[in-house]
Design a protein that fits this description.
Blueprint (H helix, E strand, L loop, with lengths): L10 E2 H12 L4 H11 L8 E2 L10 H10 L4 E2 L2 E2 L1 H4 L5
Parallel strand pairs: 1-2
Antiparallel strand pairs: 3-4
Helix pairs in contact: 1-2
Length: about 90
């Protein structure tokens, strides 16, 4: 699912969890974060943010750099979710 998030957009851990829960019956934002931290290196991990629009805590400078390079709008230190949230289907 994270591979489908287009450049310039982001998705929240919770939105990923909700979409996966529909398919698997259960999932949490915390689980998504753990999976991304352990196995997310091969996907655009920087496009997954928390519900407040904050970037991954493990590599915040790199995530922010990548998002800005893609034109993701920011509000201070957070992503402007109203302008760039991608709805997983």
């Amino acid at each position: 699912m994270v591979e489908r998030v287009p450049p310039g957009c982001v998705v929240t851990y919770g939105a990923v969890a909700d979409a996966l829960a529909e398919a698997s019956g259960r999932c949490s934002a915390r689980q998504v974060g753990t999976i991304m931290a352990r196995h997310g290196g091969g996907v655009p991990w920087h496009r997954v943010v928390n519900a407040a629009g904050r970037v991954a805590p493990s590599q915040p400078a790199e995530a922010r750099r990548r998002l800005l390079a893609e034109g993701v709008p920011m509000r201070g230190e957070a992503v402007d979710l109203r302008r760039c949230a991608w709805p997983p289907s």
